[in-house]
Design goal:
Number of helices of chain A: 14
Order of helices and strands of chain A: HEHHEEEEEHEEEHEHEEEHHHHEHHEHH
Distance between the termini of chain A: 29 Å
Oligomer: homodimer
CATH class of the largest domain in chain A: Alpha Beta
CATH topology of the largest domain in chain A: Nucleotidyltransferase, domain 5
Radius of gyration of chain A: 23 Å
Strand order of the largest sheet of chain A: 6-5-4-7-10
Shape of chain A: globular
Chain lengths: ~400, ~400
Amino acid sequence: MYSAGSLFQLLRDGRPRTRAELAAETGLARSTVTQRVDALLASNLIGPADKAASTGGRPPTRFAFNPNARYVLAADIGATHARLALTDLAAEVLAQSADDLLVAAGPEIVLDWVDRVGHDLIRQAGRDPRDLLGVGIGLPGPVEHSTGRPVSPPIMPGWDGFDVQGYLQDRFGAVALVDNDVNIMALGEHNVAWSDAPHMMFVKVATGIGSGLISDGRLHRGAQGAAGDMGHLQLPHGTDVVCRCGNTGCLEAVASGAAIAAKLAARGIEASTSFDVVALARGGNIEALQLLRQAGRDIGEVLAAAVSLFNPSVIVIGGSLSQAGEHLIAGVREIVYRRSLPLATQDLRIVQSSTGDRAGIIGAAVMVIDHALAPAQVDLLMSAAPAAMS
Amino acid sequence: MYSAGSLFQLLRDGRPRTRAELAAETGLARSTVTQRVDALLASNLIGPADKAASTGGRPPTRFAFNPNARYVLAADIGATHARLALTDLAAEVLAQSADDLLVAAGPEIVLDWVDRVGHDLIRQAGRDPRDLLGVGIGLPGPVEHSTGRPVSPPIMPGWDGFDVQGYLQDRFGAVALVDNDVNIMALGEHNVAWSDAPHMMFVKVATGIGSGLISDGRLHRGAQGAAGDMGHLQLPHGTDVVCRCGNTGCLEAVASGAAIAAKLAARGIEASTSFDVVALARGGNIEALQLLRQAGRDIGEVLAAAVSLFNPSVIVIGGSLSQAGEHLIAGVREIVYRRSLPLATQDLRIVQSSTGDRAGIIGAAVMVIDHALAPAQVDLLMSAAPAAMS
């Protein structure tokens, strides 16, 4: 307690402070402050700020958080597409790369891609590999966050129980954190657009459907990291459509991008993916627009109970289908405002994602930064030898 | 930061420490520790510990949390019954009182009872009124916790928007905190029996049905304090029973104590309250037992989706009907383990409340203690003149 790591938390707000100000703010002995500031300077996590402000004499040095001290690799793996970014310690993207990649190709192929492209990004950015703070990765299925292993993921053959965390830690020599894609999207969206809203639901509508819950500003993962899994909840009005999970009546079986594409194809309209649905909707295809509106209503049926139970102040609709215009979200609003308990919808906002396809990348970076810059981790970080003093 | 209030948090674990140990543990300057220990001693929140351990010479004094420094009044108001307790700062009940009281009689009558009986308890316990840390109260309806006012509570005519917090603060001259009865029961049960389980659902089955959610060890109240309101969620298989809320198909309309009593009465069995149902079940009445089992299944239908979404590690079934034996909980288990997502039920326990009818009282006390002994509040407390030095 009250370690260098704790002192550092103060400085993460970006405001520069002198040693005397830090002593006054914390009640720490002046000698302790000096010792801890020195350790933080050696780690490069803080640096002297605004030297130019000197007007003669020797004013006391002020210190500030240095978001370039280290960097993060953030990966967002979807069913058919993968993104990887290099970010600073404020989750700002410095460089990125993306590729069509099937998660069903298995963990070695996908994680080798992360390994190769990640090291390319580091090299191209001219960064020291030892300055990598950590790797964050989102996967399209349930993940036990504490062990970094997927748990019975329905669309990820070969991944069940695979040690994703250990694999990436070996390849990069830094901490790796794994979560499901919707959780990291919720983190990213909350960090960028809704940090003032303590209770938020992020709903991803793409090939599949899932949600991430923010409770009191923190991700609610649940006991198995399975919280927010709403794609396989039953629609109240029932349906006999068979879901890829093997059950019938799941929300995902009727309202996902894959389900809408299949319905369009059955009507002789060329569509096989979420992206086809989005393209048709943007082109004004009436049937695509009608199906999107109905998908919104179906999602609303399941969300209505979730809203009564969780009582968020904002629901963010993201994922590829959310980019097809207002029809999907209008359908969601139509049902949620009618069906949820009046008190729970009193000030509820239902909005489109503002981070779009960057939500996952930003969230994966935030996950690593929040973990690795917590007090105890910073103390560990500083007990290791500093890598580069760039 | 690093104030006397922060120092006090260390001591709340009950372990006595010397000034030197506190300085070592915190990194605070020795002079700062002395200053803050003196302030805490003056406030009576800590006291010298184990003087008897002295074996000659003058060993350094050790200090420990003094749970008797102040006391709390904790009220649990049900639909037809009210309880009030005086507890110490560890939420141990020191004295209590209970009475049949209709919440529908309105706020003045109910809160006057709290006022009168509360002051009686304080006097009988021989405590100084100025040592009251605060008043916690649970009410059987939705409450906006931040303002301490009920919000459109269905069974509490006259209470909508009533300033319960202000009323009690005026009467007792201490902070008052208000929440709904299920939230405080969740807090009480979590505090006593499940403090190691970060994610918990507490389901109250009594005259009505509701739940309280614990996320990462903290109560998830939601944006309007309406989280956990599951009594008015729709049963998946539908029903045309009209609920007291005006809708049809609500869980509460078919599975609450009131609903079961009505079903028994319709069969010519004398029953009008939850307590009658419990008495019949304990007496082995087959129809009561069958209806309890079916109520458990109906609750399980609604809980199944909640479990998938929230992914708790434990569900505690409390409220008066939970005391009727294993039939209710067996019905809940039957459906939840069949219907929830496999990952979410992997290690899920569904258990009976261990605090029984004390859950609300303990939770109301915990709510006040956690609020009023937080660092910033302790700092405020100490800036006021100490009341008694008992």
